[in-house]
């Protein structure tokens, strides 16, 4: 099992010292950090707990100016150590970090009351009660509070035992087989090239596999993997990972980018979310507010559309649509924080429910109900409803980041890889039947509508139309023959009685020397529909645009052709004309038609059999 824990707390309260004391690793790795004695960016270490469990540790800066770095380090934590110096007590970033932990819903943690060597028992009791009051109502309410000193060693053993107990209760991370590595650091190592690090979620990574950088779409390959400074072949979810990458330069990657399997994760600029405004927020959340959105390791400017109200006041909750300045990788259920850029302050946070939504009308109860169903866990069923022309299982998984098994549990009409919401499928079926009914009424002598014509009438894209047609056929709504589509009960023959007789009679008067088709239709009064229907049924054979034979005459003429060729080796237009007693036009048309049917082949002025 893999776990990652992080620090939180006000500057100078002893977070980095604690990490060094626990692990022997100084998390302040930048020279500027060493010079100023202050954490600026994230630091990383690892530790073996008394139980034998090996865990990753992320150390964050406490300074208010570096909150964005703290936020990048706090995503994906299994547990947090909130460090509060006993001599100073609760300070501004103690509160702000606690608020962020609460909004990100990190529910496991310990409070380390540090520097206890500097205070007496009376003061310690006072600070302890202040701390307990501060935790009240937050996700860390009830967390153990451990008095600790890096100088005397007091509390260290107790802290390690407490961490073991916390993680034992945590259980392993979900493995959806769709790994995401939100990058928190990129650097180059001589001899290796580009290395990206992060806390891996939702799946495993293996050396050699190809990944996509989201957003951007660049393809990279994993050349090597490390966990806690050791080479591994596979890294599993919930672990700190350093990935050595081929196919990318250091400056082509940045914190906030996410590595994922190709085509499994989308970048988005519009997100529906549920949001909670902090009770202590310095301002309410207003419709149209321009704020900073932090999620995973990324940070992006956004505009907040309040879907139900004009303002959410301190402590309130609501539905929002976020418009981002640029696309970021995001998945439904991911947590986020909203901050005011200046004066810098955290005001709200929440959870994404739809990372590929439409624009919504405000105060629309249908939208709200759909969001409520999504938030209640029906993410995939709700996602399916968004596709009025069907969607593939792969696309649904990408849009929701839900586990594969959710596909099997969907209420859906399934046709191969394609899925249709039951309501959507009913509407497609009804529209198809309506279109066919109308088409048969308008063209009673046609066998049916062309595939492409029905497709465009239904507005179904070429990609899913074969599936739609298969489903309609399976449901007994449509029958297909010779490339045209009809209602199962449709029959041309019944409606042809009376209409076809005169034309057949005109063509049959001198069957081997028929008049032109235009003359014959004029004389018989037959419509183009009748001609088409007769040809489709095989009662007449059209050998040219304006020439048709009755079925019997055509067969007789073909037999004559074969006979003449078998007697003399070949046939000319003149020979056949004499035999049929016809004019040149129908004879020439017939021979050309036989050429095109690969019955005969032209050699000079005569023809031979193929
Ligand atoms: N007396 C005493 N000083 C400490 C203790 N822990 C940290 N310090 C000092 O407090 C200062 C800030 O510590 P640091 O770990 O950098 O705090 P951070 O900003 O929270 O990471 C340093 O000068 C440390 O030596 C402790 O347990 N006792
Ligand atoms: Mg520090």
Which keywords apply here?
6-stranded mixed β-sheet; binds guanosine-5'-diphosphate; 34 strands; 6-stranded antiparallel barrel; elongated; binds magnesium ion; alpha+beta; 610 residues; 20 helices
Describe this structure in words.
- The protein contains 20 helices and 34 strands.
- The protein has a six-stranded mixed sheet with strand order 2-3-1-4-5-6, with helices on both faces. It has a six-stranded antiparallel β-barrel with strand order 7-8-14-11-10-15. Strands 16-21-19-18-22-23 form a six-stranded antiparallel beta barrel.
- It is an alpha+beta fold.
- It is elongated, with a radius of gyration of 38 Å.
- Helices cover 33% and strands 29% of the residues.
- It binds guanosine-5'-diphosphate and magnesium ion.
- Residues 9, 11-17, 39, 62, 83, 114-115, 117-118, 149-151 line the site of guanosine-5'-diphosphate (GDP).
- Guanosine-5'-diphosphate binds next to helix 1.
């Amino acid at each position: 099992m893999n776990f990652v824990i992080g620090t939180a707390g006000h500057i100078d309260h002893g977070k980095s010292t604690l990490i060094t004391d626990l692990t022997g690793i100084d998390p302040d790795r930048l020279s500027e950090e060493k010079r100023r004695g202050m954490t600026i960016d994230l630091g990383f270490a690892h530790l073996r707990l008394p139980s034998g469990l090996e865990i990753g540790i992320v150390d964050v800066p406490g300074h208010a100016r570096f909150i964005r770095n703290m936020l990048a380090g706090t995503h994906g934590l299994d547990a947090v150590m909130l460090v509060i110096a006993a001599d100073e007590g609760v300070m501004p970033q103690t509160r702000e970090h606690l608020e962020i932990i609460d909004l990100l819903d990190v529910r496991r943690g310990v409070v380390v009351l540090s520097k206890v060597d500097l205070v007496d028992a009376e003061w310690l009791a006072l600070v302890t009660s202040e701390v307990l009051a501060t935790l009240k109502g937050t996700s860390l309410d009830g967390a153990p509070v451990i008095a600790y000193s890096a100088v005397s060693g007091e509390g260290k053993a107790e802290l390690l035992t407490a961490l073991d107990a916390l993680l034992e209760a945590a259980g392993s991370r979900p493995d959806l087989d769709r790994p995401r590595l939100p990058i928190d650091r990129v650097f180059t190592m001589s001899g290796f090239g580009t290395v990206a690090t992060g806390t891996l979620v939702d799946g495993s990574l293996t050396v050699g596999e190809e990944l996509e950088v989201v957003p951007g779409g660049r393809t990279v390959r994993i050349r090597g993997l490390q966990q806690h400074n050791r080479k591994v072949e596979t890294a599993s979810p919930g672990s700190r990972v350093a990935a050595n990458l081929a196919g990318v330069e250091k400056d082509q990657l940045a914190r906030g980018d996410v590595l994922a399997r190709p085509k499994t994760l989308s970048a988005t600029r519009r997100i529906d979310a549920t949001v909670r405004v902090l009770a202590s927020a310095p301002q309410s959340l207003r419709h149209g507010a321009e704020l900073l959105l932090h999620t995973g390791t990324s940070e992006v400017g956004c505009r907040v559309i309040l879907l139900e109200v004009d303002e959410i006041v301190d402590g309130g909750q609501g539905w929002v649509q976020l418009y981002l300045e640029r696309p970021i990788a995001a998945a439904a259920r991911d947590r986020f924080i909203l901050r005011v850029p200046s004066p810098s302050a955290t005001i709200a946070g929440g959870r994404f429910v739809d990372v590929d939504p439409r624009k919504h009308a405000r105060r629309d109860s249908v939208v709200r109900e759909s969001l409520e169903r999504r938030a209640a866990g029906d993410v995939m069923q709700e996602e399916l409803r968004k596709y009025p022309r069907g969607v593939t299982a792969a696309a649904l998984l990408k849009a929701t980041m839900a586990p594969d098994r959710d596909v099997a549990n969907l209420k859906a009409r399934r046709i191969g890889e394609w899925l249709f919401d039951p309501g959507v499928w009913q509407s497609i079926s009804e529209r198809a039947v309506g279109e066919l009914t109308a088409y048969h009424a308008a063209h009673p002598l046609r066998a049916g509508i062309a595939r492409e014509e029905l497709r465009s009438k239904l507005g179904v894209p070429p990609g899913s139309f074969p599936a739609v047609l298969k489903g309609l056929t399976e449901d007994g709504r449509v029958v297909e023959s010779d490339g045209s589509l009809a209602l199962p009960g449709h029959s041309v023959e019944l409606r042809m009685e009376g209409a076809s007789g005169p034309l057949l009679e005109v063509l049959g008067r001198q069957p081997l020397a028929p008049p032109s088709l235009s003359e014959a239709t004029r004389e018989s009064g037959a419509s183009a529909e009748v001609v088409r229907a007769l040809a489709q049924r095989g009662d007449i054979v059209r050998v040219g645009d304006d020439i048709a034979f009755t079925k019997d005459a055509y067969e007789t003429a073909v037999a004559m052709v074969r006979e003449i060729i078998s007697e003399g080796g070949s046939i000319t237009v003149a020979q056949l004309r004499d035999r049929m007693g016809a004019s040149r036009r129908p004879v020439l048309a017939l021979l050309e038609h036989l050429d095109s049917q690969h019955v005969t082949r032209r050699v000079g002025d005569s023809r031979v059999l193929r």
